Amino acid sequence: MLSWILRGCRDECSATDQLKQARDVFVAKEAVLQKKISQEMERAKLFTKSGNKQAAMQCLKRKRYYESQMNQVGSVRLRIDTKEKMIADNMVNK
């Protein structure tokens, strides 16, 4: 699943470097999604004040979609962190 992220780092990078790069990508994605969520909330508030309920509902639907993507990114980051800990434990045990 993470192979598309790790392609740029073939032989010259270690597994921990690859995981750090992947984590950085997902941190950036989380930041972008958080920004989009806050923008959609602001737009929904503006549409509600102006009386355009349909547009406000569309903003809230997009916000909910971005939140679901955030959850997915969070779960991938959790798996990356788990793998990093496993590798670190393996290095200590050797």
UniProtKB/TrEMBL annotation:
One of its GO terms (biological process) is late endosome to vacuole transport via multivesicular body sorting pathway. GO terms for cellular component: cytoplasmic side of plasma membrane; ESCRT III complex; multivesicular body. Pfam families: Snf7 (PF03357). It comes from the Eukaryota. This is Uncharacterized protein. It comes from Triticum turgidum subsp. durum.
